[in-house]
Amino acid sequence: MKNTKTGSCGTPVSSTIIKVVDTETGRVLGPNEPGELLVKGPQVMKGYLNNEEATNETIDSDGWLHSGDIGYYDDSYVVNHNTTNRPYCWADTVEQTLLKRLV
């Protein structure tokens, strides 16, 4: 598979913004600095149905979804160390990685 990086979960899908923040201070981190992965884009959920408390715990006032996952980015890819056991499909590279591990 072209344009992949072993251990990464691929590149963000179109119109997706990713940022990584320090889990204690909320400071935005730079490349290769591990922290919590935050996601923003038109495909990100608006919130939990009939559960404002859960929505407010997950999506901040600026619209960033706090994944709870620790990861980092480099020049081209996002590397995600999933701490919540929630499945993500960022790109086809995620599916390919999972399939390889299952076989």
Structure commentary:
With 103 residues, this protein is an alpha+beta fold. The protein has one domain: Luciferase, domain 3 (Roll), CATH 2.30.38.10. Helix content is 17%, strand content 23%. It has 2 helices and 4 strands, in the order ββαββα. A 4-stranded antiparallel β-sheet has the order 1-2-3-4, with no helix packed on it. A hairpin with a 4-residue loop joins strand 3 and strand 4. It is globular. 17% of the residues are buried. The model is unreliable at 86-91 (pLDDT under 50). Keywords: Ligase, Peroxisome. One of its GO terms (cellular component) is peroxisome.
Tell me the span between the first and last alpha carbons. 17 Å
How would you name the CATH homologous superfamily? Answer: Luciferase, Domain 3
Number of H/I helices: 2
CATH architecture: Roll
> How much is the average pLDDT?
79
| Rg | 14 Å
Low-pLDDT ranges: 86-91
- Counting DSSP E segments of at least 2 residues, the number of strands comes to 4
Pfam families: AMP-binding (PF00501)
Main location: other
Keywords: Ligase, Peroxisome
Protein name: AMP-dependent synthetase/ligase domain-containing protein
Which terms summarize this structure?
2 helices; four-stranded antiparallel sheet; 17% helix; 23% strand; 103 residues; Luciferase, domain 3; alpha+beta; single chain
